[in-house]
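To close the chapter, one final illustration. This time we ask the reader to focus less on the individual chains and more on the assembly as a whole: which components sit near each other, and how the overall shape emerges from the parts.
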Amino acid sequence: GESVGLHLPTLSVQEGDNSIINCAYSNSASDYFIWYKQESGKGPQFIIDIRSNMDKRQGQRVTVLLNKTVKHLSLQIAATQPGDSAVYFCAGPGGSNYKLTFGKGTLLTVNP
Amino acid sequence: DVKVTQSSRYLVKRTGEKVFLECVQDMDHENMFWYRQDPGLGLRLIYFSYDVKMKEKGDIPEGYSVSREKKERFSLILESASTNQTSMYLCASSLWSNQPQHFGDGTRLSIL
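The assembled structure is written out below.
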């Protein structure tokens, strides 16, 4: 079945540095991906999404890159701040038009 | 902004009780979802609904049922609560398929 997975369960960066969180997926037909941020005690919050007809999409301080050749996507956070500390999930199609499958999450810790 | 509201943040129930978890969304979304989130297992889909009175089983429906009598409200029912149903329960909604799912802040349910 479809799967998405993150490469690292934890990532620690210094405040002000750029962060890169990576994700791989298994189904080459997957056409839509989403990144979520989950802070402690809260539900996942939508950050940015990308469709397979794009290689790159930018938001506010975030960029998502999609490499369909190697079935890999990444979330880049520019000038990481303490408020960016959270668990980050990638999600992709889950076998039907309605379902998503989620990666396990990467815990990002920002050190002052 | 999309608002998904779960009726309780914390809930403690006893084994064998019938438990109702309520979720309301205010954006006229077609699709609604119930997940549970456990350490090391990530987000797992219990049930979803793509229309009023319609429901589909997710990946782990055993021990649960759902109800969607109105478009904005999706209820999760634990027919006879058991200790292995202690978990964080997250509700989500999306406008259409292949659209971001937006999450509530979760209900942390403890079954004693």
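The mean pLDDT of chain A is 90. The first strand of chain A starts at residue 4 and ends at 6. With these observations in hand, you are ready for the problems at the end of the chapter.
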